[in-house]
Structure formats: C-alpha cells, structure tokens
C-alpha cells in the first residue's frame, strides 16, 4: 500500500501552509514561535508543541491527565479497536488524527500500529501525551480546539475521537469541523457517551452515563 503523507500544519486564520510537518518536528524548540507567512499570526511553541489556544480556562482536564498515568497497553489496544471499530493491522502507513487525544493513550496505540498520527487537544494534556509517545517519531501533537484545527480539509486517512465531543457545548459543531479533515473514502470513528438515563440501584436514584458508540466509516465527504 502507498504511504500517506503527514498532513502539514496550516494557519487557522488564513488557512495558508505554515510549515512542513517533517521539517517542523526536526526544528522545534522551546520558546520558538511559528509565524504565518500569509497573515503574520504568531503561534507559540512550548516543549515542541505548537499552541493554538490560550488555555488558562482548560487547566482542569490538563491537570487530570498530567497527574495520572493513563496508559495500560493491552487494555488500550483492545479499547481502541472496540471503540473505533478499526483493526490495528489496518493502520500501518495511514495518516491519522486523534481528535481530543487527552493523555495520548490512543495516539500511542495508533502510532505503535504504524500510523502517522497527529494528536490534538485544547488542554495541557498534550504535554502528557507527548511524553507518553516520545519514542514514536511519527506521532506529533498540537494544542488546539477541535473546531479550529490547523490542518487542511480532506487530509487524513483516518480520524478517531474517543470520549471527547460530548464535552463541548456544541457537539455537532465539533463533529462537523473534524469530519471535514477526513479524506474522501477515509474513515471517521467517533465514540461518545449519552447521559441522562435514570437508574435505581440499591435504593439510590442516580444519573448514569449510557455509553453509545457512534462509528461512521468510509463516508464520502
Ligand atoms: C475524557 S477525555 C478523553 C481523552 C482521550 N480521547 C482518551 O480517551 O484517553 C476528553 C478530552 O477531550 C478534550 N476536549 C474536549 N473538547 C475539546 C475541544 N473542543 N477541542 C479540543 N479538545 C477537547 C479534553 O481536553 C480532554 O482531554
Ligand atoms: Zn495566516
């Protein structure tokens, strides 16, 4: 099978190409700034990760992921396959996006299976993710909002998002924005929870999360 290229970063404002992804990973340094040649937007880079959001209000997710160890190898691989519906054996050589990567456990699973992965999350969890995936040269991260990701439309073979989109107040907008990044004939797997079922257990009435997989595959965009 032909190897897919790694999608290059583009400017979220003017949509111009920022920098070649391969060149980028080789030259990133703490304290660096990427300047868009088209509109002069400046994107800070810290710890080798381009930061497309001002993230003070997102600290709770970041703290949570940075405090706890989140990867459990076999379990993560099994969960990835169950929640995306995609066998790991099919990922080799594909370009993939982990939309809402959190601490990076599923970016790592996809990267270890041979995919070239961009992980994106608006919180500081990307720092945890980058540390977890440090030995995987084909796994990269951006700190960015999923509704405004710095990638060209139709550029990924496989986009997956696990347990993320229902956290945004506008789940539909997130779903649609991320869908645009899937190449025609590519794969888009989204796994969400649906809240709101009342259950009675041991005399207590509680609110439960009814986990509902939503997987959409091979859709033409
Ligand atoms: C429950 S965690 C799941 C993380 C990862 N997919 C996993 O299963 O390990 C949800 C993640 O989605 C991220 N997230 C939620 N809404 C987002 C948005 N609009 N843009 C970027 N990240 C978002 C949060 O920061 C958080 O890291
Ligand atoms: Zn620009």
Major β-sheet annotation: 6 strands, mixed
What is the overall number of helices?
A: 6
Structural class: alpha/beta
The helix-strand sequence is: EEHEEEHHEHEHEEHEE
Short précis:
With 221 residues, the protein is α/β, with parallel strands linked by helices. The protein has helices at residues 21-27, 59-67, 73-84, 105-112, 125-132, 171-179; strands spanning 9-10, 17-19, 33-35, 42-46, 49-50, 95-99, 116-121, 139-143, 156-162, 182-201, 204-216.
Can you give keywords for this protein?
binds S-adenosylmethionine; globular; single chain; six-stranded mixed β-sheet; binds zinc ion; Rossmann fold; 221 residues; alpha/beta
């Amino acid at each position: 099978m032909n190897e897919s290229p790694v999608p290059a970063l583009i400017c979220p404002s003017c949509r111009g190409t920022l920098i070649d992804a391969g060149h980028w990973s080789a030259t990133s340094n703490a304290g660096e700034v990427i300047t868009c040649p088209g509109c002069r937007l400046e994107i800070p880079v810290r710890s080798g990760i381009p930061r497309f959001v001002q993230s003070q209000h997102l600290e709770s997710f970041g703290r949570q992921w940075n405090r706890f160890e989140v990867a459990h190898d076999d379990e993560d691989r099994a969960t990835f396959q169950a929640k995306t519906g995609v066998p790991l054996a099919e990922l080799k050589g594909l370009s993939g996006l982990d939309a809402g990567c959190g601490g990076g456990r599923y970016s790592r699973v996809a990267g270890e299976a041979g995919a070239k992965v961009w992980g994106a999350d608006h919180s500081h969890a990307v720092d945890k993710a980058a540390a977890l995936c440090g030995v995987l040269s084909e796994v990269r991260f951006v700190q960015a909002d999923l509704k405004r990701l710095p990638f060209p439309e139709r550029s990924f073979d496989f986009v997956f998002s696990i347990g993320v989109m229902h956290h945004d107040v506008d789940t539909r907008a997130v779903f649609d924005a991320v869908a645009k990044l899937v190449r025609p004939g590519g794969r888009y797997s989204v796994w969400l929870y649906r809240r709101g079922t009342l259950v009675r257990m041991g005399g207590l009435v509680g609110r439960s999360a009814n986990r509902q997989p939503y997987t959409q595959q091979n859709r033409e965009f």
